[in-house]
Amino acid sequence: MNTKVIIGVVVASVVLVAGYFALSIWSSTSKWAGPVKEIEFEKFTKDGDITTIQFTSRLDAPLEKVQAAMWGVERGAESVEGIRQSKLVKAEGNSKVVELQLKLLSLPLQQYTMEFTLDPGAHRMTFKTLQSQTQDLSGWYHLEGSPDGKQTSISYEARSRAKIPLPVPQSVQESAQKEFFVNTIRGIKKRVEAATG
Predict the structure, then answer these.
(1) Contact yes or no for 55/181 (Cβ under 8 A)
(2) Residue 23 — very low, low, confident or very high, per pLDDT cuts 50/70/90?
């Protein structure tokens, strides 16, 4: 075969694969554009290499049940779409170290070792990355019960810093964060419903 033909076939193949990858990311990102029923408030801000993410949601369940379900972080793979694996590495007092494998949008599988700490009296769970190849993440969830005790407001704030320049637009990163938060809320809801039978 002619060298020019071979080079042309290789270039065309690379363009097709790159186009397919870009299209699949765009397609999965567009799913998360605009309002989502589980999110009452959302805000993304970027300052240098730090992105701050804020979400608020509400569940029709008492605070104690939501907090118990949320604290089961090591069982995330059982109820949260996108968590492929969740493994408890260490539990000590109100702290847990958990290994997580996440698959969000059409992005590659990401692995994290995270530390979660629960302050049950303040209804607050903090988290931080202990190990990750792609980003450092730290933040918190705060729960607040409604006056009638039938609903719980869930506030989330996180700061993310990429360890390596990510080859995807900021909008894709925001969509991945949004997908993960919504899937987490849905997972907490599943656990609450399973516990109440």
Answers:
(1) yes
(2) very low
